[in-house]
Amino acid sequence: MKKKRAYVYTRVSTSMQIDGYSLDAQEERIKQYAKAYDIEIVDVYKDAGKSGTSIIGRNNFITMLDDIK
């Protein structure tokens, strides 16, 4: 059976979250999940201080989508 692969994307919208642990905590939790289910993480993308209401300005999200293609 072929191993599953995943791209990791983390995002926070406020400067308070940027200064805290949120991006690192998101990434660590995703990596734990991937390890538990034998999923290979291809790459990690992060957008700090970006709203989730639109993809405009979320450059790393757009890069990830392009890489997936």
Automatic annotation (TrEMBL):
Specify the Resolvase/invertase-type recombinase catalytic domain's residue ranges. 5-69
Matching entries from Pfam families are given as:
Resolvase (PF00239)
PROSITE patterns named in the record: RECOMBINASES_3
Spell out the molecular function terms from Gene Ontology: DNA binding; DNA strand exchange activity
This protein is called: Resolvase/invertase-type recombinase catalytic domain-containing protein
What is the scientific name of the source organism?
Anaerococcus hydrogenalis ACS-025-V-Sch4
